[in-house]
Amino acid sequence: MRSLAVKLTLAFLLVGLTVAGLVALFVGQATQRQFDQFVLDNYQVALLQELSRYYEAQGSWQDLAGVIAVRQEDGAVIQQRWAMVSVVDRQGRVVASGGMHRVGDRLPLGQVRRGLPIEVAGEGVVGWLILPSSMIHNMEGMSMGQNAAESRFITAVWRAIVYSTIGASLVALLLGILLARTITSPLRQLTAATKKVAAGELDQPVPVNSQDELGELATAFNQMTDSLATATQIRHQMTADIAHELRTPTSVIMGYAEALADGKLPGNVELYQILHEEARHLNQLIEELRTLSLADAGELTLTCQMVAPPDLLNHTAALHAIQAQTQEITLHVNAPHDLPQIWVDPDRMSQLLSNLVTNSLRHTPAGGDIWLRAHAAQSALFIEIQDNGSGISPSELPHIFDRFYRGDKARAHNGSSGIGLAIVRSIVHAHGGQITASSKLGQGTTFTIQLPHKPT
Known about the structure:
- The protein is rod-shaped.
- By secondary structure, it is α+β, with helices and mostly antiparallel strands.
- Mean pLDDT is 80; it is low at 136-145 and 409-414.
- The strands form four sheets. A five-stranded mixed sheet has the order 8-10-11-13-12.
- The protein has helices at residues 4-58, 64-68, 109-113, 133-137, 148-198, 213-261, 269-296, 309-319, 321-326, 346-363, 420-430; strands at 71-73, 76-78, 86-88, 94-97, 116-120, 124-130, 305-307, 330-334, 342-344, 369-377, 380-387, 434-440, 444-452.
- It contains eleven helices and 13 strands.
């Protein structure tokens, strides 16, 4: 049995049958017990009234034994309603018995007091009716038990209980089928959509029809397929970008190399500088891709040591001082010397800070400023790289750390590989930190790095 719907239906049916059976059993037993008690009470009242009338009429218990004696005629029991009962007078002497005692015997006072008093107006208690305990607990075979009408009543009650049990079982079965379909229908939709996603058809949204766990599962599935579709699109774009980035310097190098080999161009310092620059650019791209692949595999190695934040910022500013001066951009360093040292890899930190400063230099016009700041707060150190350049639009800001993402397609290949910020984020995360960006168009961009003081 492999169908979840069948399993759920049978489970609901089993629960329904169990509950209905238990209810039927308890209700039936309680009804039978209460009905028997009702019959017994009526039986006792009838006997007491009949005995009271007899005493009033006779003035004594004389000849009572003959009245209630049990006789048999042709195998048929006569006056069965008096069977096993005894009547004793005020002195506790048995004056009549249906077979439980002998007439004339005197019963113990305790046994007499457990009987039912027979009262007559003006005389009080004139005797006692003794019922055996077996009659109270088991009335089967007694005439005060069920007559035809009473038997029909009990039969009708049991019939109603059986029909109710069958009806409850059918309702449980129908509800089981309905609930099983309600549960399994979205699961079947998810299964079909999952198979299509596995086959490469990523655009497979499933309807969200509820707010319960199944609805959350469908929502999570839709989010997953959206993420897969986005990741696939990014991967395709990344592959195309990598191919383009590799093709550009490779084409330049091959073109000049062929021209030199064919003697069409004479070798000179300027040509060699071009070849060197393109080879350097190609090597940088390959190294950046290698860094990203190590970060994805969790194998980005760090050689950490305690480093003073001002030293990192001053070193970064010194590396880019000439380029900033050439672009007529002013670099500012603001890092108090009493800042706590941090446990980082200085080479990786220099790499990520250089990427951020290079990005700011690329988008800051002449006459602009770039600030390198650091300050401590509680258990973290904050490093900020801020510029007053062109800024980033709000729609592009959430994607700037994505690989090969370039907001300005018109200047997509202005020397940027499109993975510098992705590397920055990977290095920050490897140090156990976080990086965020805020920006306003035409006013500039601020990158904020949060690093723990102590090793994570």
